[in-house]
Amino acid sequence: MGQRHQIYVKIPKVYYNKNNPNNRPSKVIGIHHQWLFGATAMRMLERLFKFISNTTIKYCELFDSSAERAAQILATLYSVDHDKGYYHGNCVLEDGETDNPCLGDNNNGITIIDYSKLTRDFTGDVKDAIKYCFMSIDHLECLGKSLITDKYIAEDGEFEVESFVPISAEEWARLHYPDYHKLVNQSKERKQLRKDLNVKSDSIEFAEYINGLVKELSQYKLLTLAEVKKIFPKMYKK
Question: What does R_g of the chain's alpha carbons equal in angstroms?
Fold first, then answer.
């Protein structure tokens, strides 16, 4: 039971100097979340990005500690959102469980984050160094049946999200809330819009919240399919 979702993060290598025993290679860590759906998956990703952006890389354990410690921090960040009054536990994936997302207990997709470029000597714009995507793993429980792109296939009246291809924040939002973009107040016709669509004001406010998440996450680059294949070669192995 639940909206089972996994989060995978490719963390940076740690390099101090040649032959230093504390040097560590880049690695993929992950957590299993038993109930993460739609907007909450977007919101928790947004919070992770803010945490990374506000962090001093040289002194943060998320960048400069063991993979085990980084995974614990990831699990903590994804467990609670005090602004929204949200809490839900999760568990850290073991070595071997992060090699292939197909092995996870999943019915509502995954989140993939790559911030491996943020090494100790990084001096650029953090937003340019972080990439992400959402993804369906054989099955995605969502509400959208009207999003028309080459990633979404309709056969015999049934709607299916193509698996193993990167999904952007906007696409993710449209899949889970197909009409959210129609509810966003883009003009002075808010009252008429509410009347025409027969929705309550709280529906419009929620749509505006979704739109805000999309705008925030869209500041970061979307992982390409080729990049995801490099992170998870076992998932694409024929």
Answer: 19
